[in-house]
Write a structure and sequence with these properties.
This protein is α/β, with parallel strands linked by helices. The chain contains 14 helices and twelve strands. The mean pLDDT is 95.
Length: 396
């Protein structure tokens, strides 16, 4: 018989995906230009030309087996060396190739990192609002995800509630900065305080507590925002990165785990990840993508579009009376709904062909997420629909 566990999961599909599918069906009825879909975080700006050119050059000049054959379990050595050198130069770190493990995106990175530092029954703490898939990334390892309630004033860390969840079973803290869904970037002050708390608890409990830092939006930072590199503050940090957002290549599924060289057993993390891969059916990402990205490191898509879109939406939301924290990065904004039931709020918005995501699954009932990785011209048109929705339904 088939697994009851995964049959049960069919009844709890991703709200984001369901709304995106609704938008697709609606677009067939009235035209995609008339559906204002803010559901899915799929990058909207073009891939860098340098990446496209390098891919074409590789296809024309390199041996096919080098490009399309299996790479080493940890990823291509020369690629990992280039990544280490890039990180060292950018963040003043001391990585070597042995500290890097290539993955299929940030999801693969987090899934491996969680298994490296936990055993069944251990606890991993994260902070609301959080990406709902963390439930699966963590709980399916046999560890248990615990969620700290949100600091809704600024969406930094709610340290008072965090302290209540910390206990000897805590083996890791999973953070996401810049944050999906809030767009908040954890400040230097926040990270220093987090590091101090964890250093103290490591001594109290007599074991390591790792930070698993989920960083796929690390390059999407807005002007004047304090956006420190997490590993600079805490030795036991595993950085999980993806090139999906910075280069607009989510379908290529390329990311990595970077173990802070000062962390416990730093030289073993990458090879341990390779052993973990044997049990979860993960083999390293495509060789050609590893090579091409390594050859254009530092190049990004035109990410300024996202800040422009954010400002348009933020200004409109404020003018309509929404409570909203201005994002410091990503391509998400996270307002408070105009009624307590954000699911009902978002259902009403569908009548105006506005596709918004209620935040119950993000651990923040009463809020909703807008993914503004949308053409700016369409964002501008969507604001008229948003204004009509609010004025009609809420008499504002």
């Amino acid at each position: 018989m088939v697994s009851q566990k995964y049959k049960d999961m069919l009844g709890a599909k991703s709200v984001i995906r369901e709304l995106s599918e609704w938008a697709g069906r609606r677009a067939k009825e009235i035209g995609a230009e008339n559906v204002f879909d803010f559901s899915l975080g799929n990058p909207s700006v073009p891939v860098p030309q340098e990446f496209t050119d390098r891919m074409m050059e590789l296809m024309q000049t390199k041996d096919t087996m080098e490009l399309h054959g299996y790479s080493q379990s940890q990823g291509i050595l020369s690629v990992r060396q280039k990544f280490a050198e890039f990180l060292n130069k950018k963040y003043d770190m001391n990585y070597t190739a042995e500290h890097l493990f290539m993955t299929t995106g940030a999801a693969g990175a987090v899934a491996h990192a969680a298994r490296v530092v936990t055993q069944p029954g251990d606890e991993v703490i994260t902070f609301a609002p959080y990406f709902p898939e963390y439930n699966h990334y963590i709980n399916q390892t046999g560890a248990v995800l615990k969620v700290v309630p949100a600091d809704t004033k600024q969406f930094q860390i709610n340290f008072e509630e965090f302290d209540k969840l910390l206990n000897p079973k805590t083996m890791a803290v999973l953070i996401n900065t810049p944050n999906n869904p809030s767009g908040t970037v954890y400040s230097t002050e926040t990270l220093k305080r987090l590091a101090a708390v964890l250093e103290e608890k490591q001594k109290e409990y007599g074991h390591d507590i790792f930070i698993i830092s989920d960083e796929p939006y690390r390059e999407i930072i807005f002007e004047g925002v304090d956006a420190p590199y997490v590993s600079k503050f805490y030795d036991n940090t595993l950085s999980c990165y993806s090139f999906a957002k910075s280069m607009s290549i989510p379908g290529e599924r390329l990311g990595y785990v970077a173990a802070n060289p000062k962390c416990t057993d730093s030289g073993l993390i990458s090879v341990m990840c390779a052993q973990i891969s044997r049990g979860i059916g993960h083999n390293c990402p495509p060789s050609i993508i590893q090579i091409a990205v390594a050859d254009v490191l530092g190049v990004t898509s035109d990410l300024s579009v996202y800040e422009k879109n954010m400002n348009i939406i933020y200004d409109t939301l404020v003018s309509l009376g929404f409570e909203v924290v201005k994002p410091g990065g990503t391509f998400y904004i996270f307002p408070k709904a105009l009624e307590a039931d954000s699911v009902a709020f978002c259902k009403k918005a569908l009548n105006y062909d506005l596709v918004l995501v209620p935040a119950d699954s993000f651990g923040c009932p009463g809020y909703f997420r807008m993914a503004y990785c949308v053409e700016t011209q369409k964002v501008e048109r969507a604001m008229a629909a948003l204004r009509k929705f609010v004025e009609t339904e809420y008499s504002m």
